[in-house]
Predict the 3D structure of the following.
Amino acid sequence: MTTEAIDAAAGQAAEMAEAAGHAAEAAEKGGMPQLDFSTFPNQIFWLLITLVVVYLILSRMALPRISSVLAERQGTITNDLGAAEELKLKAQEAEAAYNKALADARSEAQRIAAEAKAEIQADLDKAIAKADAEIAAKSAEAAKAIAAIREGAVDSVKEVAADVAKDLVTALGGKAEARTIKAAVVARLKG
Amino acid sequence: MAAEAQSETGLVFHPMEQFTIEPLFGEGPIHWYTLTNQTLWMAIAVLVIFLLLVVGTSRRALVPNRIQSIGELAYGFIYKMVEDVAGKEGVKFFPYIMTLFMFIVVANFLGLIPMSFSTTSHIAVTVVMALLVFVSVTLIGFYKHGIGFLKLFWVSSAPMALRPVLAIIELISYFVRPVSHSIRLAGNVMAGHAVIEVFAAFAAILAIAPLSLLGIIAMFGMDVLVAFVQAYVFTILTCVYLKDALHPAH
């Protein structure tokens, strides 16, 4: 070990001694106030007072009140839930009644529609039958008229043909009996 | 250490100064009855609890506003914890456990206000609470089960030869409970605040200041988490100990 080192060590030792002196001083100010036992009776006394006061505040005032508020809220929630359940049942009943009414109305409507349809169909059938009959009558009449007209037409043609034939024969210088000519025309028409 | 750092870099480290207990009025020794800054912040904690749980719920609203919601959430949270962990019989002790939880959680969060005082960072405070739990749980155990409470230390599911050894281990662990119970809370709160203070001291150096600020923000975020989690842990451990007293058999 050199003298310098010894000097340094001595210096350090001196500093440490000085620091120890400071430490004694610091123990009062710095140190760990937690380990200053002279304050313990004071701390314990006031802590016990504090705890008792807090306990009295809690057990006499705060806790019963909070507990009653919570119970009240729980009760209200339970009641409300019950009421809601009741209302739900009512709503379900109402829905069932509504559905039933709806189904009734629907079947009623179907029945009315079917009746109306049948009625209309009957009317329609009747009208068609009547119209058919009328048409048949009219067409029969028409056929008769046509037949009559056709009959008339053939007679006219015979007459006209006989007249024309007579005129022709006269024109040609012949002399014809009206009966003969008529017979000839009829034969011609037939043939 | 502190003196050295100061002389070499100009930095001032007093991470523990924030925990100093001083008389509120004047100077002088702290007697057992002296009003101190700690007394003040305990009183503020009581006031906050009163505002939150009594004034906040005074409307008794069916549809709660925010403050009433917080009160009801806290109530439901602890009530369910007691019921789940300690069982139906534990519900009797709910007001005591709620007292501990509300005091710790409110004191923890009040301690996060800058320039405030962290009541729960003091070992004396947490030890008293842990001992209250330890003593009352032990008394409840003996009151309910008499000498049968000692079955807690007799692991009947283990092989016969191991049981005495396990009994000693169980006994030691039982008596270590209040120590870990209290130091966990005070240690976490104290460490979080002290680290913030150290980061803050580094902010005096311009080059490091941004980093230091980021560090403070990150630590503060973590301390918010710690403030709640440690109150939760203290309370749930209380419930677990209570469960052991109510149902000691393994």
In short: The two ends of chain B are 50 Å apart (CA to CA). Chain B touches chain A through 57 residues (CB under 8 Å). Residues 35-246 of chain B form one domain. Confidence is low (pLDDT under 50) at residues 1-7 of chain B.
